[in-house]
Design a protein that fits this description.
Keywords: Coiled coil. With 187 residues, the chain is of the alpha+beta class. The chain has 2 domains: 61 residues; 112 residues, Ribosomal protein S6/Translation elongation factor EF1B (Alpha-Beta Plaits, 2-Layer Sandwich). Helices cover 57% and strands 24% of the residues. The chain contains 5 helices and 5 strands. A hairpin with a 6-residue loop joins strand 4 and strand 5. The longest helix has 60 residues. The termini are far apart.
């Protein structure tokens, strides 16, 4: 009887392991896998947070004068008022009369993909987008003063693309120049 009781207890222990302990063991293995996945995600998030902190620290280390210079180079908005002030200063410094400046509606610019399909795929991924502000200005100046004005526009910190120049003759070495140009700002 003792052997039968021992065999029954042994069979009950095996059955308990198969029906109760085995599912618990499988669940424990799943939880361990989830735990390691969560720990990996937390480690990556911690790395990203450290990188963000380093970038923020680097950004905060940039002097305000350099940030202002960068915003002068590619401002965050069209800023036609500052553009007009800059054009007036450039013309006044060269003895040129700024007659008229007309700003037109802003348009979106993007880099056009190249002809090859692989280059097109690469450029679609890294398309640089900026907005432009177009304007037309009319100035009265001598030819030498106008050339000086163009050199000043070329050396100006803010990028100015002159797309069209028209002129009409005047009296005593005084011409009226009409320039069509565009400048860029952040999207």
């Amino acid at each position: 009887m003792r052997t039968i009781f021992t065999i029954i207890l042994l069979l009950a222990a095996v059955a308990l392991v198969i029906w109760v302990a085995r599912p618990m063991w499988d669940e424990m293995l799943k939880l361990r896998a989830e735990k390691s996945a969560i720990e990996d995600a937390l480690a990556r998030l911690q790395d990203l947070q450290n990188l963000r902190d380093e970038l923020l620290q680097t950004y905060n280390a940039i002097p305000k004068s350099k940030l202002d210079r960068l915003n002068d180079f590619l401002p965050p908005k069209p800023d036609s008022g500052n553009m007009l002030v800059m054009l007036e200063k450039l013309t006044r410094d060269r003895g040129i009369r700024l007659r008229r400046v007309e700003f037109s509606k802003s348009e979106s610019q993007s880099v056009q993909p190249a002809a090859s399909p692989t280059a097109a795929v690469i450029l679609r991924k890294e398309t640089a987008k900026t907005n432009t502000i177009s304007y037309t200005m009319t100035i009265s100046a001598s030819y030498e003063a106008f050339r000086s004005f163009l050199v000043a526009l070329e050396k100006n910190l803010r990028i100015i693309d002159v797309t069209d120049i028209n002129f009409t003759g005047g009296s005593a070495n005084l011409f009226e120049f009409t320039l069509k140009a565009k400048s860029y700002y952040q999207k």
